[in-house]
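TA notes, week 10

Several of you asked for a full example with nothing omitted. So below is the full record: structure tokens for the whole chain, then the designed sequence directly under it. When grading your own attempts, check the secondary structure regions first.
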């Protein structure tokens, strides 16, 4: 998909896609790096892939975002989905939506190297 077309998409749709991409990335990371039982992997995954944590991840990568990525984040910030994830504040949920929308945008525009760079940077920051 062309960047122009992806930038015109509804940011909640981009975030919907980005959420699944990030979940897949985290699950793969955990399976490759930890020899835990399924229950433990699931708990770790849920702890990382939540609005509260994704809001922190966005803050950690804001300095490396491109202009296109910043534009997507700004658009996603202004969306009011009508519901908030449990155990998060509206601000955290907004930042998580921004983070996920960026991931969805990068995936749709086939910027896979950049997508992996951001997700790897995110997990590095999380581990610190």
């Amino acid at each position: 998909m062309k960047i122009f077309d992806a930038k015109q998409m509804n940011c909640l749709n981009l975030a919907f896609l980005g959420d699944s991409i990030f979940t897949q990335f985290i699950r793969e990371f955990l399976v490759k790096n930890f020899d835990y039982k399924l229950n433990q992997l699931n708990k770790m995954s849920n702890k990382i892939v939540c609005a509260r944590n994704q809001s922190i991840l966005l803050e950690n990568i804001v300095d490396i975002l491109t202009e296109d990525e910043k534009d997507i984040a700004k658009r996603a910030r202004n969306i009011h989905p009508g519901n908030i994830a449990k155990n998060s504040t509206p601000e955290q949920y907004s930042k998580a939506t921004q983070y996920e929308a960026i991931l969805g945008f990068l995936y749709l525009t086939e910027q896979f190297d950049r997508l992996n760079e951001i997700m790897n940077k995110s997990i590095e920051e999380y581990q610190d």
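Helices lie at 3-7, 11-33, 38-48, 51-61, 67-77, 90-108, 112-127. Use that as a sanity check on your answer.
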